[in-house]
Amino acid sequence: MIRGYLANDILVEHAELPGHEGVSAGVSVIDTEGDIEVGVWEHSVGTSTDTEVEEVFVVLSGRGTVTCDQGGEILLEPGSIGMLPMGAKTVWTVTEPLRKVWITLS
Questions:
Q1: Do the bridges between strand 73-76 and strand 36-43 make them parallel or antiparallel, or are there none, so unpaired?
Q2: Residue 4's pLDDT is what?
Q3: Which residues pair with 40 in a beta bridge?
Q4: Is pLDDT at 106 greater than 90 in this prediction?
Q5: What sign does the dihedral 91-38-14-17 (CA atoms) show?
Q6: Average pLDDT over residues 83-98
Q7: What is the largest CA-CA distance in the chain?
Q8: Which is it for strands 81-84 and 46-51: parallel, antiparallel or unpaired?
Q9: What are the structural domains of the chain?
């Protein structure tokens, strides 16, 4: 059975990120199918770090950059598509509240 969602209508609850005072983020898993998981992620203005799972994402709204310890930078703006390798240590610098749809394989 096929399914569809309006990504901008998905509710995402934020929590302050530990060790990143004043910066919050939230995630909402939309659906899973086999080993594919799809969700929406939001990040407030500010900077945070993360260790990634293998992910493809599309930015819906907001602006900023994400850089990786393995090299590279992705400009985050509506329509940007990014690919993050498993284990990459990233720095997210968000200048306008960010909302993206992500897809992972588990």
A1: unpaired
A2: 95
A3: 28, 101
A4: no
A5: negative
A6: 97
A7: 43
A8: unpaired
A9: 7-105 (2.60.120.10)
